[in-house]
Description:
By secondary structure, the protein is mainly α. It has helices at residues 3-15, 17-26, 46-58, 61-65, 104-113, 128-131, 136-146, 168-178, 192-204, 208-211, 254-263, 274-281, 288-299, 320-329, 331-334, 352-355, 360-368, 393-403, 416-424, and strands spanning 78-81, 84-87, 160-161, 229-231, 236-238, 265-266, 269-270, 370-371, 383-384.
Amino acid sequence: MTERRVRGCLAWAAAAGVLAVAAVAALGPRDESPVPAPPGVLQAAPEQVARGAYLARVGNCAGCHTARGGATYAGGRGIETPFGTVYAGNLTPDTATGIGAWSAADFWRALHHGRSRDGRLLYPAFPYTSYTQVTREDSDALHAYLHSLPPVRQPRPAHALRFPYSTQAALAVWRALFFAPGQPVDEPARGAEWNRGAYLVNGLGHCAACHTPRNALGAERQGQALGGGKVAGQGWYAPALDMSAEAGVAQWPLQDVVALLQTGVAPQGSVTGPMAEVVFRSTQHLTDADARAMAVYLQALPQRSPAAAAAAIPAATALQPGAKVYEQHCAQCHGDQGQGEPGAFPALAGNRAVLLADTTNLLRMVLQGGYLPATAGNPRPHGMPPFRQVLGDEDVAAVLSFVRNAWGNQASAVGTIDAYRAREARSP
């Protein structure tokens, strides 16, 4: 079935009540029926609560479930999607607006099956397509931790999704096409460290949620896990983790991969954009063993070669305007030869982020600037100021075209229209 035909099915399903009932009834195992709240709340062991607190950081739960300026885990943050805005729920133990009445079984069902306590289907902006891999033991620890938090009374705003994507019927069809509950399966031949890394990357870490391309209906493309994709609603590109030309780390020393996860910086590169928030809120808190396990798994990913593409390399004369912009605004930090300053400003010569075929991230960095995450291993990171108010679209395109073709770099030019579109794009 083509994606165009699937869109038609979604619209038809949303309008037909009979199909809505049938689709919802057909989904999932029988144990998905609502689980009543227990008559009393059992006191969790301190070790379980502590483990849950760690797992919540591994999963970066606060990243989505905390509104800017709001109470941690109280929800309310809007998650932009191509189909509208989904608002994150309140995870504090408030009984009226949070998960205070949720049992451990209710919470497990949300992670594993993507269903709320009342049986309602959850939108996959909540990445249960990855969380379905989380073990029941870890789910119970997360539940215990969240129930140890101070309750905050804060209702979740209503989702703002376009029809038919706002309907449970459409969501039921989507799930029938693209989701099935799963579980982690160890590969004994790989060893305990690799298996632990696979569990963290593919489950609670939900790395595929950003680093995997999606189809027209927002589902991860089958067979392309971690192959790079647009970060929905944020205007960034999450580079492929299975390509050395993008963000693959198969050839890096293992300790450098660990350093990137825990500090945000490594000799070969650093993190910016949404990944800087992930490192700040999540991966810097990994234990050494878990950071190493994730690094081992990421290094073992089968690597793909980039698709051969004949890039139109601009002539040297066309690069002269960009060279002047670079000399005036960039050379002071990044060096006359794009060599950067170790420990402060990244080199641009030979920088694979500079040479990406997708120039989304370059344009975002020049226009809005950005900082590396402040971490225990890099507490005072350097940053880049925004040039949105300093450079016009022609200057932005010119300087990026120059940087992509200077000091041995070779890549296609950036067009003025690209700079204009990036400037006009809605910021998160």
